[in-house]
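Ticket closed. Logging final result for tRNA-dihydrouridine(20/20a) synthase.
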Amino acid sequence: MQAQPDFSPPGPSHLPAHRLSVAPMMDWTDRHCRYFHRLLSRHVLLYTEMVTTGALVHGDVARHLRFNTEEHPVALQLGGSEPADLAHCAKLGEQWGYDEINLNCGCPSERVQRGAFGACLMAEPQLVADCVKAMVDVVDVPVTVKHRIGIDKGESYEFVRDFVGTVSAAGCKTFIVHARNAWLKGLSPKENREVPPLRYALVHRLKQEFPELTIAINGGITTGEQVAAQLRELDGVMVGREAYHNPWWLASWDEAFFGAAPSGQTRESVESLMVDYMATQAVEHGTPWSAVARHMLGLRHGLPGSRRWRQVWSDHRLKTLHPREVMALAHAPASVGEGVCVSSPDAAVAHA
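Final structure:
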């Protein structure tokens, strides 16, 4: 019988809630991705994709806020700049059971700028403070802010120091700092994650100047050694794309950074639990398995045969199969050679 995952709360800990977290990533950290990441780590703090206030005020609240109870601790990231709208949406997030409300002051995309929120809000710290206070006044869960160290090519430490000082006075006690500037013109969101130089020292200086605040760092962190080095200076580390593309790394975090006992899980056991989840989602919500499987394509990153395994789980021609059959096919020897996939669902059944 398939062992059931242990989703019970990790229990009291002296370690800060933001010690390790997975960044909010548009089109990636949906509830299926977060369920997958929770299988790998019981302690890591998970974030939703950014949800705009407009989507909640005028759209389908359930579609945007529904999540699996197993995801806790999980934070809702909001995008907006109107205090009243943010207060309304923060209250919705609390009612739906989120453990934290986070305000996006770091996204540099032009679409977000047109909505007058994201990284461009850093130029208006008092407005951000008003937004934070409006949310703090109506919810009991923590309200946090994710931001950059600056905007455009200004390199003044005083800019980010004053931003944090103004916003913290409004009731925000936790700041997740992407250690790059956001260049609001001339760079794509992808380039904004790579081109502006990383300046970790500025984030360390923030912690020195605001020791009473929780300061976590984000940006360019891809190894356990880097995580450990940052935790010697700061309260937490947020990991983005490396956690998504190489998710098995998360399986080591509880033992390495939270003092937990080894989980004993394997890639295959996690994959099997995801298959169970896919089957449940299909029955309860009509979700095709491919919408879930796309998030675990990095699970066998670096292993022999991983390319063919990814090809099978990415093959939409197999969409009529039960995910358990797809898993069997993904682990079956290639019939012709490495990287060769079957050409039809019927062939898949025969091969499996």
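The radius of gyration is 21 Å. No further action required.
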